[in-house]
């Protein structure tokens, strides 16, 4: 049975961030994820998790200057020391919050400022930084995940395709480095979701460490648009995926009012 985690960056924007935990719990979620926790001390987020009986399953490492347009550090030449420090900070938060998945963003190689480095140079830095991050995370029993992101929502992002992400993980060869399979991004760039899930779920090296969903093309609830999610949920179950599925979508209106898609899964069993 699929286990769903509410993404508190995208969902429950009717509430202040720390109030979203309670709202998700009242709607039956047993787990949450979000982009970044760093505006709040770990103790405040940990208290919300404990008070609402929620499990933290994923967040992102610091991405650089997000408000200035940066989208990660891992592939950026000359930012290696900043990247190392970002992983140290993220692992401190993970230790406090209890999650064992950490998304490391690759970064932009085009906008907002044109790069002076070749794609090959970015890739070399990316390999070295991911090797470092996964090595640092091993002792903490944390899995680093990397996510291909579509070129429409994030032009210039270094990593766009599932096969490329899998190849990078296989090249590095560390057991705690996997791919974050976002069905929304993959559908926009590649499509053929079921075939790619079958191909990548059981890879001996790399594989899929986390899954996210949203309707395509508008990133709303998963009961809208061109993707047949009930079919994919059955497939994911049949492939033996035991992780969480992050609901990283923008509700059309009120978050709670748009959770009708979740009803069959609530009736069939808890989302924990």
CATH topology grouping: TIM Barrel
Spatial strand arrangement across the major sheet: 1-2-3-4-5-6-7-8
**Count, helices:** 9
The share of residues in helices is 25-40%
Order of helices and strands: EHEHEHEHEHEHHEHEH
- Summing up helix and strand content along with how strands pair, one would put the structural category as alpha/beta
Distance N to C terminus: 10 Å
Biggest beta-sheet profile = 8 strands, parallel, barrel
Tally the beta strands.
8
Q: What integer value in Å does the Rg equal? A: 18 Å
Low-confidence stretches: none
The CATH homologous superfamily is named: Divalent-metal-dependent TIM barrel enzymes
Principal-axis shape equals globular
CATH architecture level-2 label = Alpha-Beta Barrel
> What top-tier CATH class fits best?
Alpha Beta
Mean pLDDT: 95
The count of domains is: 1
Strand content: 5-15%
How would you concisely characterize the structure shown here?
This protein has 272 residues and is of the alpha/beta class. It contains 9 helices and 8 strands.
